[in-house]
Amino acid sequence: MKIVDYSCKDFVEVLASKEPVPGGGGASALMGAVGTALGNMVGSLTVGKKRYADVEEDMQRMKAKADALQQEFLHLVDRDAEVFEPLSKAYGLPRETPEQQKHKAEVMAAVLKDACSVPFEIMETCCKAIDLMAEFAEKGSAIAISDAGCGAAFCRAALIGASLNVFINTKSMDDRTYAEDINKKAYAMLDKYLPLCDSIVEQVSARFR
Which of 46, 139, 140, 153 is 20 to 30 A from 13 via CA? Predict the structure, then answer.
């Protein structure tokens, strides 16, 4: 059974258990899907309204993009589990002899890159979603504008959560050139999109004052 097919109750219970998956990466991907869906709801409440006829075409485009991002996030929930399980097993490989140490090092190098690639992809998807939240907040129906702010906040949390899962893997990599390149790209996303999220939330909050 795929993790994305769990009930909300089952997901939370397994997440709280000692099972290796889902973990922080999968939870971040799910958070991204929920955040994107909140923005998508703003679009759903905006399309077809005479008051917002001038942004109808934009809303249809944004909703289609949100639909695609939601599916990508859900796909990444399961992908994160797929790449983490080999890593959890690799940590348990014996390293008593030089041969075992060499084998473990080779396996770890491969699985660490795989385990890092998915949360990195979650981060990239979060950035696309946050750009979309900015549009929903700007152009969406006033009666649902709080949901655009919530969507941005959720995507912000997903971005930070995914980054932590990137950094814990790059820290363990022997290939420091590769690790630092990934870290540099991840920090660049955080530097750009965390302030944007804060700005979206602040703009939404300001409309209630």
Answer: 153
Q: H helices then E strands: how many in the chain?
A: 6, 0
**Tens of pLDDT along 142-197?**
999 999 999 999 999 999 999 999 999 999 999 999 999 999 999 999 999 999 99
CA nearest neighbour of 73 among 117, 18, 25: 25
Q: How far apart are the C-alpha atoms of 104 and 114, rounded to whole Å?
A: 15
Report which of 170, 177, 3 is spatially closest to residue 80, judged by C-alpha positions. Answer: 3
Helix (H, G, I), strand (E, B) or coil at 2: coil
What residue has token string 């809303």? 59
CA 22 to chain centroid: 14
Judge whether 29 and 145 are in contact, CB under 8 Å: no
- Structure tokens belonging to residue 68: 């695609």
Residue type at position 150: C
Go through the domains of the chain in sequence order and give each one's CATH number.
3-206 (1.20.120.680)
